[in-house]
Amino acid sequence: MLKRRFIVLLAGFVPLLSHAIDDKVVLGTAQDVSITAGDVRRELSLVPDAVIRRVLTDPQQHLALIDGMIRLELYAREAEALGVAADPKVQARIEKSRKQILAEVVREHVARSTEPPDFTELAREEYLLRKAEFVVPEQVRARHILLRFEGDAQKAEAIEKLRQIGERVRQGDSFEALAIAHSQDPGSAPEGGDLGLFGRGKMVEPFERAAFALRSPGELSDIVETRFGLHLIQLVERVERRERGFDEVKGPIIARIDADYRKKILESWDREMSEKASSDVDLEMLRKFFAQELERLK
Asked: Residue limits of the PpiC domain (predicted)?
């Protein structure tokens, strides 16, 4: 019911999408609970940046968000109606949660409030020191047709079949279509034998050696034997090894340096707050207090 009401309401908003929807506009209702655009905007402000775009573009998540907000409101109202919200333990939990949220917020504020220096030159130094880490290795994209065999007779038949397939490809037949029709690799056969891009060390050695020996797109390998069977390989694409330039990688480097910088600021602030939190404790009274609390549990 909640989802149907939400869909009907959204359908009524279509003509308004070119204008900002007012905070008071109702997006979903259940019993006497109404969820407004303002309520949803506040809820969205709590969604992490990493997932907000997915939430905003997924209609199923739109429905789930409204449904969850309504349920939460109904639960809270029920807690008030039943009197459990006034329980001292519940109030203690609410107050502790409030302080924990404030502590988290103020730490985030401290970490982000300081204007950082320009880290470009520091990032450049790090790039030069770690330049070997920013190399894109040589890769190839290949297709293959796999035929399995048991015994010499089946092996000979498979070799002859792959030889004939190779001839058909050289005469203009589609490697992809032949892979779909004949390859016994269940993972790649439906994709026309396509294995995607891969680097060295990702395939068994005889297969890798043959694939990387191919130079031009469309070139076929000789028949290759591995522990999986016999393969005919076609090169699709070759990506040569290259070094990524500083401008290409400086963003992530600067982001990491900035994160370390803010972490140190926060650690320093935490130490200052810990010093402020140091207090004089009446150890004898503290011992008696906890002894009494323990006695109350018996």
From this structure: 137-237
Reported as a single tens digit per residue, the pLDDT across 232-241 is 999 999 999 9
With a CB cutoff of 8 Å and minimum separation 6, the contacts of 163 are 223
Torsion angles phi and psi, residue 29, rounded to 5: -140, 155
> Residue 214, SS3?
coil
Class of domain 138-240: alpha beta
CATH 3.10.50.40 location in the chain = 138-240
- The secondary structure element, H or E, covering residue 224 is strand 224-226
The model's confidence at residue 198, banded by pLDDT at 50, 70 and 90, is very high
Give the distance, in angstroms, between the CA of residue 223 and the centroid of all CA atoms in the same chain.
40
The distance from CA 156 to its chain's CA centroid, rounded to whole angstroms, is 47
Give the model's pLDDT for residue 279: 80
